[in-house]
Design a protein that fits this description.
4-stranded antiparallel sheet; alpha+beta; 4 helices
């Protein structure tokens, strides 16, 4: 989803979407780890949330083969998501609180079009 599409789902307010501390342009993709902020009239942050897209562990807004590879590496303990809570949530596509080889397989199937969603 693009930044402008996501913002259109909110009812009013000054909404900004940030990735790595920079405001996303209207046509840029929103990915896991992006932060959506509601900004008050004085410029203060009223509320914020972090985006988590199931399967998008690298935060580029697309569920791809590299996401499946990363989840597989985490599942077999070659990597970890210790400092990246949104990526851990995105990789846990079945919602059981852990990362498994099965989830890597599911993400890969979505990435190559064999499945439509999680």
């Amino acid at each position: 989803i693009t930044a402008s599409s996501l913002i259109s789902n909110f009812n009013g307010g000054n909404i900004k979407i940030y990735k790595d501390g920079k405001v996303l342009g209207s046509d840029e993709l929103v990915g896991t780890g992006c932060v959506v902020k509601l900004i008050g009239d004085g410029g203060e942050v009223i509320d914020s949330l972090t985006v988590v897209i199931k399967g998008d562990v690298d935060g580029d807004g697309v569920v791809g083969v590299t996401d499946a590879r990363t989840v597989l590496r985490v599942a077999v303990e070659l990597e970890n998501f210790n400092t990246n809570a949104p990526a851990k949530l995105a990789g846990d596509v079945d919602g059981d609180g852990s990362i498994s080889v099965t989830e890597a397989r599911t993400i890969l199937r979505v990435a190559v079009g064999l499945e439509n969603s999680f």
